[in-house]
Each structure stands twice: as C-alpha cells, then as structure tokens.
Write a structure and sequence with these properties.
Order of helices and strands of chain B: EHEEHEHEHHHEHEHEEHEHEEHEH
Order of helices and strands of chain A: HHHHHHHHHHHH
Mean pLDDT of chain B: 89
CATH architecture of the largest domain in chain B: 3-Layer(aba) Sandwich
Low-confidence stretches of chain B: none
CATH topology of the largest domain in chain B: Rossmann fold
Shape of chain A: globular
Structural class of chain A: mainly alpha
Oligomer: heterodimer
Largest sheet of chain A: none
Largest sheet of chain B: 6 strands, mixed
Radius of gyration of chain B: 25 Å
Number of strands of chain A: 0
Protein name (chain B): ABC-2 type transport system ATP-binding protein
Structural class of chain B: alpha/beta
Shape of chain B: globular
Mean pLDDT of chain A: 91
Strand order of the largest sheet of chain B: 5-6-7-3-8-9
Main location (chain B): membrane
Distance between the termini of chain A: 35 Å
GO molecular function (chain B): ATP binding; ATP hydrolysis activity
Distance between the termini of chain B: 26 Å
Number of helices of chain A: 12
GO cellular component, one term (chain B): plasma membrane
InterPro entries (chain B): AAA+_ATPase, ABC_transporter-like_ATP-bd, ABC_transporter-like_CS, ABC_transporter_ATP-binding, P-loop_NTPase
Number of domains of chain B: 2
Chain lengths: ~270, ~325
C-alpha cells in the first residue's frame, strides 16, 4: 500500500530533495556542459568584480559605501542569484511547460507542481556564480573588518536572500500561465533590475525606487538591507526585514503559482 | 457506486481570432480578439469499478480533453467530475494516489536518467513500500520485459521501450483507476500485442480502465464497453458486443468456384441473398442477414449446389461500424 501518512511539507521536501539529487546525477552525463557553464558563471561575475575594483581606484566611496562593503553587496546578490540556478532553475521552464502541455503529468502526481517544476533542472552556471559570489562576499567581509560575531546575522541574511530570490523568480515565472510565451520576461526584468540597481547603495535612488524595491518587489532585502545592517548603514532592527520579506515572498509565490495552475489549459485539445 | 462519474462535463477554450498571414498577426498584436471553442460539450459518463471502457472518436472529437478533465489536469467550464467521490481538480493530491495516467504522445520519464531512477523517484513520490515496489517491478519485468532497459537512459530508449517504461510509471503505485491515452501509438505489432496482453491482465485483476485509441484492435481486445464521442458529445455508449449486434447485421462468404461464376443466375436462384462478383472470375461474394440466416444454413445450401473448392467467411469489423458512426450514417 502507498504510504499517504507523511506530512505534506515533509513529503514535498523529500520529493524536491530526491529530484535535485537526480538532476545532479544527470549533470554527470554532460561533463563538458558542466565545466563550460560553471566557468561562464565565474566569468560574468569577474567583470563585476573588475568594475568595482577599477571604480574604487578612482573614488573613495559611493554614497558612503566603501569598496569592501560594495563587494559584500555584489557578492551576496551573486550567491543568491547563483543559488536559484542550483535550487530552482526548472522554474524558468514554466512558460515552455505551459505551452507544450508538460505540466500535465505533474498535475497527476501527488506532489506540489511548483516543487516538481522547480526541481526539474539545474543551471550549471550556478556552481560558478555561487563559488565566485562567496569569494567576493568573504573578501569584502574581511576587508570591511567584519568579525566572527556577525557571522550568524550574515548566515541569516544569506538564507533569506536565497529564499526571497527563489520565491520572486517563481512568482514572476508563474505569470507565463496567463501570458503565454516561452520566455519568463518578468523574471528577466527583475534580474536585470537587480544587477543594474541592487549592486549599488539604495541611497542613490529616488524614494519611489526605494518603496518598490522594499515593499512591492522586495529585492532590497536580498542584499542591500542585510549588508547595510551588517556594515552599520542601517540599524540592527532592520534585521527582521529579510525574514519577513522571505515569508511574504514564499506565500505570494505559492499563491500565484496555484492561481496559475487553475488557469492552465494544457495543449492539444 | 461508480468509481467515476461525470455530469454535463463541458470545456470551453478561448482561442485567438485573427486573420491569416503577417498582416493578421500584426493586427492581432494591437487589437486582440478571441472566440470560444467548445471541446467537450455536456458529456455524462459513469464508470463502475472494474470496468474497461474504450473512449473513441475522430481527431479533435474531445477525447484527450475529456481525459484531462477526468484526471484533474483541466478545470471543467461547466459540470462536475467525481473520481471515487472526489473532485480530481480541487482534491488533486488525494486523487493522484488513486489514478494512473499515460499519455502515449508524451513521456513522464526523466530524460537524462536511467529508467530505474525515474521509477524510484515515482516510488518515493507515491510512498510505495520497498516490498510492493519490488513485487511490482518483478511483475512488470515478467509481462513487459522491463529488465532489459532498466539501466538505460530514457533518451536512449526506442518508442516501444519508452511506452513500456511509461506504463510501468503509470502503474507503479497500483492505481484503482487508470487512464490510457493512445498507449499503442506508433508501436510495432509485437509490442502492441504485449501491451494488450498486459492490459487484459490489469483488467482481470480488477483495475478500472479508460482507454482512448485510434487502433480499434486495442479496444476490441481490452475493453468491454465503448463510448464513442463526436464533436464533443457522446454518440454511442454501451457494450461492444451490443454495438456489434446492433450495427453489424450482415455477414459475407466468399466462394472460390472451379469455374467462372454466373452472378445474375445466382441472383435469380437465391434472391434472399446479395451477390457480388469477386476479384477473380471464379470468385463470388454472397452477403446475408445474420438475423435471418445462420452461416451453417447458408453454407449448407450453397456448397451442395456450387461445390466451391474453398471459401472464406467475414463480417464487418467494429472499425467499419465506428467509421459509419463518425460519418453520421448510424444513429444511437
């Protein structure tokens, strides 16, 4: 008999974990792809690192933020974005799955569809991005004179950053249930916004941008808020922001994805 | 109590309404228009536990859409579906434990993994115990020869192997209600035979089956009841034997004579039968109403009179009947 007594969240976690492990096994089928993509993940971020290094050779700070603090800002964002490639890269395929009717089987299985879709692929560039992002963040951390005492807050910020990033991408990819297309344009726009704006201090931007990035699409809680708290640019009470933003983002992502599934109409009818 | 019950099941899709060509495409970008298209139109369907039901219809009749409504993939625009008393769409997870689904045109195998890994992923997803998993895999291996390609990556399988593996995936959790949408599409005759034998065993074991197929041999060999749909509505629903008895009213015998057949003379002598010339001059085909004459009766008289060197007996196939149902030549 089938065991149907496992708690749904635990069951979903088990399905997710096994599926991700299976994807890692599948990666071994394509070793050349792995090395090319992982290297590309490093190279894209080397350019950001080089840009910051060149910039700060000319100026002492940007809106009060120094070189090592800015490295932490970029490093945290890079780790969060790279983690999405490792943890939920399949979610980018939502549009393709919707158009081709490939959600069908997933609906007939006893596990959340969002979990099955998210774990259906691993972006190999994520290995390079996470590795180089960690190097940048740790280098910035040490250079900014951060001690070991701040590590728990840093780990909390990192965990929340990854959750928020995964949740927001999931929510924006779910738009493809309504706007039919293979490209998740809204998620791309968000990543573009992050890479262009969130690698700079939020103080540089007008109030409207601050409001949007904090309360509408809370990308500021991915890297800016935690790094600002750690480096003293914001007060310690701001540290409650990332967990709250993470919880709200997850709820919104699950809700929007469920709504999307309700309007799924498969293909070939 | 039915295991599956659908009442007034209706599904309407919205389709873009645009003119053809480049101009139409550009105009549609600025001025979007849609029109509704009803794929399934008020279908009533009730299936008892253990029944094997063929669900057939011409291309575009709404077969796959119905299966998607019954499995919870799609939400009905109108009407209700209950599978073991549950709404398959809103109670999706609970329903998933009791149903097995196979879409012949798509695979549910993980493309870059060995078949065995896909089955293990599904085992854990459905919460199948180790003992049950082992027993089922052994049975699938016995009936479907899974063992030969269990270690192979899904992307390296032939179509026949892929279909057998997909069938195992659909049944790994021993579902009570199984939906098979074109399970033998594109398969060679030996694989089809093996699959049909497997499906017969499944039905004999008490599994409820809903099968859609364009291959009517699948239906005759596996199912007892047939539902024919056309343009989204039910055109016939009843036992296959009844369909045959109701619509197959004639039989034919081809006689191979020693010399050329004189068809007009035979028509005069045996006006109760229909006569037609065969492919060769010495061949003649006699058609009779099976309700009025037994085959023995017909053959008794004719063989004594004409002394044919050989004969062959045929009756219209279920395929002919369904073709005529599709064409609207037959009524319910």
């Amino acid at each position: 008999m089938a065991d149907t007594t496992t708690h749904p969240v635990r069951h979903a976690g088990g399905v997710y974990g096994r599926s991700i492990v299976a994807q890692i096994r599948a990666i071994t089928e394509y070793p050349a792809d792995f090395w090319v993509m992982a290297s590309a993940g490093v190279m894209w971020n080397v350019l950001q690192f080089a840009f910051l290094t060149v910039l700060f050779a000319a100026v002492p700070d940007v809106a009060g933020w120094r070189y090592h603090e800015m490295l932490m800002l970029s490093g945290l964002l890079t780790v969060a974005a790279g983690s999405t490639a490792l943890l939920c890269d399949g979610i980018w395929s939502t549009g393709t799955y919707v158009l081709k009717g490939e959600i069908d089987y997933r609906i007939t299985r006893p596990a959340p569809v969002v979990v099955q879709v998210a774990s259906s692929h691993i972006g190999m560039q994520g290995f390079g991005e996470v590795a180089f992002g960690l190097v940048m963040a740790v280098y910035g951390w040490i250079g900014a004179g951060m001690g070991l005492a701040a590590v728990p807050a840093g780990v909390l910020g990192l965990a929340c950053a990854i959750v928020i990033e995964c949740a927001l991408i999931t929510m924006l990819c779910a738009v493809n249930f309504w706007i039919k297309g293979t490209n998740s344009v809204f998620a791309f726009v968000m990543l573009d916004l992050q890479h262009n704006a969130m690698t700079l201090p939020l103080a540089l931007f007008p109030a409207a941008v601050k409001l949007v990035t904090m309360f509408v699409l809370p990308v500021a809680f991915v890297n800016f808020v935690p790094v600002a708290v750690l480096t003293g640019h914001l007060g310690p009470w701001w540290l409650v922001g990332p967990p709250l933003a993470a919880a709200a983002s997850v709820l919104a992502a699950v809700g929007v994805y469920r709504l999307g599934l309700r309007s799924y109409d498969s293909s070939g009818h | 109590m039915p295991i599956l019950e659908a009442r007034n099941l209706t599904k309407t899709f919205r389709r873009p309404d645009k003119a053809s060509g480049f101009k139409g495409a550009v105009k549609h970008l600025a001025q979007r228009k849609y029109k509704n298209y009803t794929a399934v139109d008020g279908i009533d369907l009730s299936i008892e536990p253990g029944e094997s039901v063929a669900y057939v219809g011409p291309n575009g009749a709404g077969k796959s859409t119905t299966v998607k409504l019954l499995t919870g993939i799609l939400r009905p625009s109108e009407g209700t579906v209950r599978v073991m008393g549950r709404d398959p769409h809103t109670e999706r997870i609970a329903n998933a434990h009791d149903i097995g689904v196979l879409f012949g045109q798509r695979t549910q195998l993980w493309w870059d993994l060995p078949v065995e890994e896909s089955l293990k992923l599904l085992k854990h997803m459905y919460g199948v115990s180790d003992a049950d998993y082992k027993a089922r895999i052994a049975r699938f291996d016995e009936l479907l020869d899974l063992g030969e390609f269990m270690p192979a990556l899904a992307r390296t399988l032939s179509l026949g192997q892929r279909m057998r593996a997909d069938l195992a995936c659909a049944l790994i959790h021993a579902p009570k209600m199984v939906y098979l949408d074109e399970p033998t599409i594109g398969l060679d005759i030996s694989v089809k035979d093996r699959l049909r034998a497997f499906l017969r065993e499944l039905v004999d074991d008490g599994t409820t089956l809903l099968l859609t197929s364009h291959d009517l041999a699948d239906i005759e060999e596996v199912c007892e009841r047939i539902v024919v749909i056309d343009k989204g509505a039910v055109a016939y629903d009843g036992p296959i034997t009844q369909l045959k008895a109701h619509y197959i009213t004639t039989k034919a015998v081809k006689l191979f004579l020693e010399e050329a057949a004189d068809v007009p003379a035979l028509e005069l002598k045996y006006p109760q039968y229909e006569w037609a010339a065969g492919e060769a001059p010495s061949e003649v085909v006699v058609t009779y109403e099976s309700a009025r004459f037994t085959t023995a009766e017909v053959l008794g008289g004719l063989t004594a009179e004409l002394s044919p060197r050989d004969l062959s007996l045929s009756e219209p196939s279920i395929e002919d009947v369904i073709r005529r149902l599709y064409a609207g030549e037959l009524t319910k």
